[in-house]
Amino acid sequence: MPELPEVETTRRGIAPHVEGREIVEVIVRQRSLRVPVPGDLESTLIGARFGGVSRRAKYLLLPLVERTLLWHLGMSGSLRIARVGDQPKKHDHVDVVFEGGNILRYHDPRRFGFVDWLAGDVESDIRLARLGPEPLSPDFDGRRLYRLSRGRRAAVKTFIMDNAVVVGVGNIYATEALFMAGIDPRRAAGRVSLERFECLADAIKTVLAAAITQGGTTLRDFVSGSGEPGYFAQRLNVYGRGGQPCRYCGLELRQIVLGQRASVFCAVCQT
User: Fold this and answer.
1) What is the DSSP string of 209-231?
2) Residues 151, 154, 204, CA angle at the centre, nearest 5°?
3) Is 105 annotated in the active site?
4) pLDDT tens sequence for the chain (271 residues)
5) 135 SS3 class
6) Is 58 tagged catalytic?
7) Catalytic residue check, 261
8) Catalytic residue among 56, 58, 80, 196
9) Is 241 a catalytic residue?
């Protein structure tokens, strides 16, 4: 599933090719996505221009003058730049064609993503209104984690993956950040000290920033807006390495299930 770094990589990849350019055609090949494609998508977009493309959590926001398009990649979706004449593939569901020949093309084999109009603004749309802060923003730090965790019995990994606590810390990056901070993912969130939460917040920022710099993590179908795969997977210390030796102490990494997600950790380096 594309996580925050993958979505941010997509945003950076598509923005220079779609911002300020007139839309001349919209082709919808499949309207039955997780949310049905709006019936007025074509009539509203043709002749319009997108402003600055932004991101909130794992949602991409493409603004027009009076409305904003909300795009979510789901579990297997990708947005990339194609050119007029590039033949669509089997699961290319939506094309937004711009003056000059660029196409913003949405590909989604599982159809769990969607494109829809933002309901009001970011603060009022029910899909966005209750989200926590962005992990790379000043609003997110160890003090916030410590304050919200008091009395919480949930595992710390499950806690930091809660979008009401902080957005965009998915399974891959939660696993890696907990390893970097030396915290056992099974530990109850309410039993983690302020000092350790400050280390964890710093680790989350470091891991996500590095993943964005590297272009995301190549897992299954993810590619960036330019069609290139991510490369952060080459740097993973624990995720997906259950049964292999820890890169630091040599102990065999353990793999368990937390919150219905696979979780890998080192019993020596993480306590």
Assistant:
1) HHHHHHT----TT---TTSPPP-
2) 100
3) no
4) 688 998 999 999 999 999 999 999 999 999 999 999 999 999 999 999 999 999 999 999 999 999 999 999 999 999 999 999 999 999 999 999 999 999 999 999 999 999 999 998 898 999 999 999 999 999 999 999 999 999 999 999 999 999 999 999 999 999 999 999 999 999 999 999 999 999 999 999 999 999 888 875 443 333 444 455 444 455 789 999 999 999 999 999 999 999 889 999 999 999 9
5) coil
6) yes
7) yes
8) 58
9) no
